UniProtKB/TrEMBL annotation:
Intracellular or extracellular location(s): Cell membrane
Pfam families with a match to the protein in the record: Glycos_transf_4
EC number: 2.7.8.-
Membrane topology, as annotated: Multi-pass membrane protein
GO-annotated molecular function: transferase activity
CDD domains: GT_WecA_like (cd06853)
Main subcellular location: membrane
Entry keywords, A to Z: Cell membrane, Membrane, Transferase, Transmembrane, Transmembrane helix
UniProt-recorded name of the protein: MraY family glycosyltransferase
Transmembrane segments: 6-30, 42-63, 99-118, 130-151, 163-182, 188-204, 211-230, 236-260, 293-314
PANTHER family per UniProt: PHOSPHO-N-ACETYLMURAMOYL-PENTAPEPTIDE-TRANSFERASE, UNDECAPRENYL-PHOSPHATE ALPHA-N-ACETYLGLUCOSAMINYL 1-PHOSPHATE TRANSFERASE
Length: 315
């Protein structure tokens, strides 16, 4: 029952907070202005990430207190939100925030879970209880790569109304189910808090969007999903536990793989923004925004259901 309360609490926090942060953003001109690369044709407030962050953090603290998982989300999440707000501030003025400060910040934040004792500690065979433990350096490196990758992957797919928040809601409910199966109550609570926050935000962000989450929100979503996956299924990874987050996060992972492959093939920089993402391709083929998002929701749901089926069958 506590998970239902947490879901409702996070949903309520965000649904009430979004109009406030949207009003402030409009008042100060903190908006995403249309460009040739973007598909919206009017300025849209960029402050939604603040509301999502508040919903997840407030819910986690109220229902969980302040264990290592909460401290990780608070320290890493607040850092990403601050960097994201600076980046979004540049965008609102028609400027590009330099890449290297962002990358350095993302790398530093990716080590916060390690600092708090949350990491991928080793691998074991599904047919044996024996585990090959990673050295502290290898564990930190593997954890950093996973968290850094998810931070950027969620940021990459945040290019169309409702996509990042909807896919995150689906993925987080999958991680919630997996955490319950593995008896990881804290990660289950964070996952359901993230789902409630994203569902509430989706009420304002689905096409036509009245607010964007901005880089502040997208990077926080990626970070929270990454940490939740580690704490819930990846601490001591088997083939079984590894399959759950990979499938649950299948849409952003596949999108990133496709985009990076195309950029390499065309000789473009991997960090350069472009229109090569899956949602851009679907719209070029004639789908509307709603049809594109709905199709990708369906794909995300199929991946998520498959991950749970694999978990139940092989467990």
């Amino acid at each position: 029952m506590v998970y239902l309360y947490a879901l409702v609490f996070s949903f309520t926090v965000v649904i009430l907070l979004v109009p406030l942060v949207r009003s402030i953003a409009l008042r100060i001109g903190f908006v995403d202005r249309p460009t040739k690369r973007k598909i919206h044709d009017a300025p849209i407030p960029l402050s939604g990430g603040v509301a999502i962050f508040a919903g997840v953090i407030a819910t986690s603290f109220v229902f969980m207190g302040h264990p290592a998982l909460f401290r990780t989300l608070l320290i890493g999440g607040s850092s990403l939100v601050l960097v994201g707000l600076v980046d979004d501030g540049y965008k609102s003025r028609g400027l590009d925030f330099p890449v290297w400060p962002r990358l350095i910040a993302y790398i530093a934040v990716s080590l916060v879970p390690v600092w708090q004792g949350i990491g991928i500690q080793g691998v074991s065979s599904p047919s044996s209880s024996a585990m090959i433990l990673f050295s502290p350096v290898v564990s930190a490196a593997v954890t950093l790569i996973w968290v850094f990758a998810l931070i950027n992957m969620l940021n990459f797919i945040d290019g169309i109304d409702g996509l990042a928040s909807g896919v995150t809601a689906i993925s987080s409910m999958t991680l919630f189910a997996a955490s319950l199966i593995f008896n990881h109550n804290q990660t289950a609570l964070v996952a359901v808090a993230l789902a409630g926050s994203c569902l509430a935000f989706l009420a304002y962000n689905f096409h036509p969007a009245r607010i964007f989450m901005g880089d502040a929100g997208a990077t926080f979503l990626g970070f929270t999903l990454a940490v939740t996956a580690i704490d819930g299924t990846l601490k001591g990874a088997t083939l079984l536990s590894l399959s759950v987050p990979l499938l649950a996060l299948g849409v952003p992972i596949l999108d990133t793989a496709i985009v990076f492959s195309r950029r390499l093939f065309e000789g473009k920089g991997l960090h350069r923004a472009d229109n090569l993402h899956t949602h851009h391709s679907l719209m070029k083929w004639g789908l509307t925004q709603v049809q594109t998002v709905s199709f990708l929701y369906l794909i995300a749901a199929v991946f998520s259901l498959l991950s749970i089926v694999v978990l139940l069958v092989l467990r």
